[in-house]
Amino acid sequence: MAPTKTDDTILELNNVTRTFGAFKAVRGVSLKIRRGEFVTLLGPSGCGKSTILRMIAGFETPNSGTIRMNGADISKKRPFERAVGLVFQNLALFPHLNVFDNVAFGLRAHGVGKAEISDKVMAMLGLVDLADFAHRPVGRISGGQRQRVALARSLVTEPDVLLLDEPLSALDLKLRRQLQTELKTIQQKTGITFIFVTHDQEEALSMSDRIAVMNAGLVEQFSPAVETYHFPQTEFVARFVGETNLFHGRLATDDGGKRVLRFDDPPFEMALPENLPEDLPEDPPEFAPGQAVALSVRPEHVRIEAADGAGDCVRHTGQVVSHSFSGASLTYTIRTGGRDVLAQAVFRPGGRHPLPVGEAVTIGWDMDQVRLIPASPQRQEH
Ligand code: ATP
């Protein structure tokens, strides 16, 4: 199998909704997924990720909207009529079968010949690095190896789309990181479209071509991983994907008629950035006079200077409240005005960090590293 990442759409959800009684679990989701893509549905518990996967698989029926695969409406097709594979956190391997027979199960059910089964299963076990374990009972392999058996079992039938619902969440952190890399490599080698569900933003960022960030039954943003982090389009996305500092304010006009942004806490004013970065996504938000806005400043973009530090960035005086050490970096909490700001600093032994608690500092950021986004609807109303 060769990588087949192209621009053609393999799966399209069009305004799909799903309600349970009066509760709207999925509220009009539209997504176009390209053939060969690694797409992640990312969001907090209960936001509707698994319900979407279950509707794609055919275990759940949308109340309205359509699901098309390879151009054909599959909304009414039964699960086994869809060219879809599934991997869940709860692996449901057959405990009485060995590794080979677990992987061969689907092919046997489809009546595939013995020699072809042997070739395909061994090729797949080679791909997931388990060829030497073919005859081992699945009860006598490790958790990570069992996860790879589940993956091989789903891939061996060559589905058009593989759905993965939090498949790594039961594993310890180190194994999880290792399997993330392996999963991505296997996806690239097979060229099969993966739709992966997780609530772990680091996992989503490290593996995905594109991420659909979900909140309360809606997709708030569907964009390439790098863009999701660097150009969040909503407050929710800015907060959920990575850590950030959000400053709330409004677009106003100063005495000279220039458009300015006025923020409340700490109080400051800045010009509306005119020269937007060249790598900005296609549709930068438009802001109307009086509109409530949020400024997102990532902790790694907050500079910490001595109290009298100079520079051409936005600057505030503050005081170190606490710091936490995480190996390569230090994250400070700095009190400025009536709020706390997170600031990350690179740690070098013998350098000036960590600054002591209580130290007076100036914090600031460069305007080309911050993002202006519309304030969330609740704030717009106030
Ligand atoms: P998690 O990460 O916790 O698995 P999720 O984002 O996958 O969450 P879903 O499992 O899709 O969320 O559930 C979305 C909402 O729909 C939740 O509030 C859940 O309780 C509700 N829900 C899901 N299935 C049913 C059902 N069969 N009957 C009633 N409510 C349901």
Secondary structure: elements and pairs:
Layout: E1 9-20, E2 23-34, E3 38-42, H1 49-57, E4 64-69, E5 72-73, E6 84-88, H2 99-109, H3 114-127, H4 143-155, E7 161-165, H5 173-190, E8 193-198, H6 201-207, E9 210-215, E10 218-224, H7 225-230, H8 235-240, E11 245-253, E12 259-263, E13 268-271, E14 292-297, E15 303-306, E16 314-325, E17 329-336, E18 339-346, E19 360-365, E20 371-374, H9 377-381
Parallel strand pairs: 3-8, 3-9, 6-7, 7-8
Antiparallel strand pairs: 1-2, 1-4, 4-5, 9-10, 11-12, 11-14, 12-13, 14-20, 15-19, 16-17, 16-19, 17-18
Bound molecules: adenosine-5'-triphosphate (ATP).
Adenosine-5'-triphosphate binds at residues 20, 25, 43, 45-51, 199.
Question: How would you describe this structure to a colleague?
Answer:
The strands form 4 sheets. Strands 6-7-8-3-9-10 form a 6-stranded mixed beta sheet, sandwiched between helices. The chain has a 5-stranded antiparallel beta sheet with strand order 13-12-11-14-20. Strands 15-19-16-17-18 form a 5-stranded antiparallel beta sheet, with no helix packed on it. The mean pLDDT is 87. Helix content is 23%, strand content 35%. Strand 17 and strand 18 form a beta hairpin. By secondary structure, the chain is α+β, with helices and mostly antiparallel strands. The protein contains 9 helices and 20 strands. The longest helix is centred in the middle third of the chain and has 18 residues, at 173-190. The site of adenosine-5'-triphosphate has 11 residues, from helix 1.
